[in-house]
Amino acid sequence: MTQEPRWLSDREQRAWQAYRRMFLLLNAQLSRDLARQSGLSEPDYDVLSSLGSRPDHRCRVSELAERMLWSRSRLSHHLARMEQRGLVVREECATDGRGAVVVLTAPGQRTIEAAAPLHVESVRKYFIDLLTAEEIDVFADVGETVVERLTDTEGRRPTG
């Protein structure tokens, strides 16, 4: 005998649909602004901001792929395009000859420094400034709860 589905209540359906619509519209708007203002794609920005936030401006390719939830192959192709634009370079990993490290270049640093203030202003305009301080806290709590459930202790997606 199969168990009946646990259908969403009207209240739950409203929350789920509001989240889905907000997610799609907000990401589309932020992507448009990012491309128009800085010529960067979301993945470009993710790579540059990840590297820029590290003291040494470098990260193992495998670690960056995991953070972005991309395969190493997909990230490698994207990094090749970013290398052609002079934003990053790849180097062999000193501690593991099989691994590679991606490094932020000086032009990449200038690019993220110019893009970040514009991007944060878009995030404020279309998200943060629309919410009260209490709503921001609740949103952060909800997001952290869901992320915690979807990741294991090492921050990776569950395997099964």
UniProtKB/TrEMBL annotation:
Gene3D superfamilies: Winged helix-like DNA-binding domain superfamily/Winged helix DNA-binding domain. GO terms for biological process: response to stress. InterPro entries: ArsR-like_HTH (IPR011991), HTH_MarR-typ (IPR000835), MarR/SlyA-like (IPR039422), WH-like_DNA-bd_sf (IPR036388), WH_DNA-bd_sf (IPR036390). PANTHER family: MARR FAMILY REGULATORY PROTEIN, TRANSCRIPTIONAL REGULATOR, MARR FAMILY. It comes from Streptomyces antnestii. GO terms for molecular function: DNA-binding transcription factor activity. Residues 12-148 form the HTH marR-type domain. Coiled coil: none annotated. This is MarR family transcriptional regulator.
